[in-house]
Amino acid sequence: MIKQILSKLPRKSSKSDTLASAGSDSNNNTNLGSSIQCSNGLNVVRRMSSAVFPSMVTAGAEAVEPHLSFKDVPNTEKQKLFVSKLNLCCVVYHFNDPDKDQAEKDSKRQALIELVDFVASGSAKFSEAAIAATCKMCAINLFRDFPPKYRSNSTGGETEDEEPMFDPAWSHLQIVYDLLLRFVSYSSLDVKVAKKYVDHSFILRLLELFDSEDPRERDCLKTILHRIYGKFMVHRPFVRKAVSNIIYRFVFETERHNGIAELLEIFGSVISGFALPLKEEHKMFLSRALIPLHKPKSVGIYHQQLTYCVVQFIEKEPKLASVVIKGLLKYWPVTNSQKELMFLSELEEILEMTGVVEFQKIMVPLFRRIGCCLNSSHFQVAERAHFLWNNEHVLNHITQNRQVILPLVFPALERNTRNHWNQAVLNLTLNVRKMFCEMDEELVLACQGKLEEEDSKSSMAAEKRRLTWERLETAASFQPVGGGNISFLVNPATCSVTC
User: Fold this and answer.
1) In sequence order, which ranges of 197-259 are alpha helices (DSSP H)?
2) DSSP letter assigned to residue 253
3) Peptide bond into 277 cis (omega under 30)
4) Which residues contact 47 (CB under 8 A, 6 or more apart)?
5) Sign of CA dihedral 396, 399, 400, 405
6) pLDDT (tens digit, 9 = 90+) per residue, 183-219?
């Protein structure tokens, strides 16, 4: 009975039946709806990709065979061939195994060379699709994570004693860098369109590449970043801020970066183009980034470029000389003689540009430090400090302010004449003393008398300390009277300790 009742009820169509019926009718609305959904999904994907690289939706961009030569296609098709070759070069190969995919690597390299030649010929026209495709190809090939650094002896990237490490993929990377350089240097490039793709994210990734251990790559990056800074004026504040952040991280956190010298070399020319009066942002870059760069141990790698940047600032605004010298004194090395020699060299260059007012602001702490350098046991440091008196501009400052400077350095000169081990330093000290005598003999005699008086007081204090220690030793050697653990205490009043 139940079976009969159920058999009379209408059957519910199964999912498989629905699909079968849908497939049997090619003009069915269901089939049309599914095609619309697929089309919408494809459009979504295209819209997402076109937000970055519109060349992917360019009609007919892929219609030209990428392996063709530019000579074999008409002028109307060269733009499409250019984009096709760029898309072909988006495949990245690994070079750890040189024999693997060698044919594909050679094909890609040939395509890259053809792209560079086409741009170099001047016949390229960078439409928005071509600009997007160029940036995409360069980003895919260049932007990569570097392997961990296993060097334990170095704290700041490459040193002069280390052999540079070369990237095995350089045969391709070099051509990509050449193409990117020609692209950003192209005279007819539409900057308004290109800045949408050479954007802040692109520049940040480009700056990250400055940490490459391959010096050839850093040299290419240096030229490219300089061209980007010159051409894309809208990005200049961002570039300065991003480089400042790299320097902050290097100085105050890691003390490891391979490209500080190249970044400073770029900024040497950037600083020379600053307008006067200097903006507060630029002065902050000097005080917060450039001056603290004297702190790391690896300053010798980039000290030449750093000095040039500092000198450029002082040439722009001479009042900054006192700020820089105070910074040098703050980070002055105590135990690193080679670093001290670099500081003395930079100091002389700055003093040549320092005016009288700025010099008087810093002369007291400055010549206290120079006095220590005159007394240095490292003969090169002592020699370099004495050579300051050979500089005519520095000597004029010293002569005008000898009443303050001579009392600061005279004790160091006197100690050198008495007991410095190096004969060359001793001769230089005698020459400096002779200069001071010729400037103001009365002041020299006064300083000598004061020094003798201080030495006498020091000798008396030393003798007093010696006698005090003798009394203490005598009291300590006094044998206790009586047996057991009972002993007489020494009365403090009988042995007063005064120093």
Assistant:
1) 200-208, 215-231, 236-249
2) I
3) yes
4) none
5) positive
6) 999 988 999 999 999 999 999 999 999 999 999 999 9
Query: Helix, strand, or coil here: 463?
Result: helix
For residue range 367-399, list pLDDT tens digits in order: 999 999 999 999 999 999 999 999 999 999 999
pTM of the predicted structure, to 2 decimals: 0.77
Going by C-alpha positions, the residue among 465, 459, 398, 466 that lies closest to residue 432 is 398
State the DSSP code for 314. Answer: H
CA-based radius of gyration for the chain = 38
**What span, in angstroms and rounded, lies between the C-alpha atoms of 143 and 131?**
17
Cα maximum dimension of the chain: 138
Q: How many CB atoms lie within 10 A of CB 14?
A: 9
Q: What residues contact residue 4 under an 8 Å CB cut-off, 6+ apart?
A: none
Structure tokens that stand for 469 in this block: 């220690």
Which residue, 367, 434, 427, 365, is CA-closest to 397? Answer: 367
SS3 of residue 188 by DSSP:
coil
Cα–Cα nearest to 93, from 83, 111, 108, 82: 108
Residue 411 phi/psi, 5° resolution? Answer: -60, -40
Q: Is the peptide bond before 98 cis (omega within 30 degrees of 0)?
A: no
Following CA atoms 15, 16, 20, 22 in sequence, which dihedral angle do they give, to the nearest 10 degrees? Answer: 20
